[in-house]
Amino acid sequence: MPEITVIIPTYNRENWLPDTIESVLAQTYLDYELVVVNDGSTDNTPEILSRYQSAINTITLPHNQGVSAARNAGIQQSHSKWVAFLDSDDRWLPDKLEKQMLRVHQNSAIKVNFTDEVWIRNGKRVNPKKKHQKQEGWIFQPSLSLCLMAPSTILIRRDVFEVTGIFDELLPACEDYDLWLKITAQFPVHLLDEKLMVRHGGHSDQLSSRDWGNDRYRVRSLQNIIKTIPLSAEDRQAAIIKLIQKCLILIQGFQKRKKDTDVSYYQQIITEHQVLL
């Protein structure tokens, strides 16, 4: 059994997918299996995957079910000790896995390890803003505002999922925000502070580009986490405050669009959570 399962979920990414797969096959660390989950693609993805059939395992979903379902299918059909994710428009540097595995072998207490990344937006390298600065340890509270761990950088011990669960398939976006909060509330995370992944942004098929009001899904996530995850008193208070802040942002947007029903809905959420502070 390989030590790592690498999971690439993909949907209609024929222009990106070959480079993504090649970046895994070029890894200097070899004790892995590569699982590509074809999430109901309607482009030339099946043909591309057929070129690599001797080097990859393919899971084909009958129709497009979303990135959470695709990642979960890969998790559920593999049995390795470690799981790594790679989005099908990103790529790894050749020593990404080797450096991460060296670090976790040096410290057996590490259950979640992630790296820094290079950002490419519309074909040009850009510098992340100060708010995106990487942190490690118990980072639940810094993660409430935004994802500090890119999915394509993370290496997770499988037994973490036994505590946190896997990706929420009811969330059409912000599924990584949701799971990372469940993880960081219950586990410290370790940062390998090197840029070992290249992250592409700015293209039209990104979830964040085509889905307005992603704070709707963050609010839904926070509601569930506050209700179901064992949080410290400080983390719980911080989560409630962030939930209220995000509801206020949504209310402003819905007021401009004259969507009174939505305004009332998020005002009610605020009222319900203010009493918990």
In short:
This protein is of the alpha/beta class and 277 residues long. It is built from eleven helices and nine strands. Helices cover 41% and strands 19% of the residues.
Task: Write up this protein.
The model has no long low-confidence stretch (mean pLDDT 94). The chain has 2 domains: 4-210, Alpha-Beta Complex (Spore Coat Polysaccharide Biosynthesis Protein SpsA, Chain A), CATH 3.90.550.10; 215-274, no CATH class. It is globular and about 55 Å long. It contains 11 helices and 9 strands. The protein is an alpha/beta fold and 277 residues long. The chain has helices at 17-25, 45-51, 67-76, 96-106, 140-143, 159-164, 175-184, 207-210, 215-228, 233-256, 260-274, and strands at 4-10, 32-39, 57-61, 82-85, 91-92, 112-121, 124-126, 155-157, 190-201. Strands 1, 2, 3, 4, 5, 6, 7, 8 and 9 form a 9-stranded mixed sheet that branches. The termini are far apart.
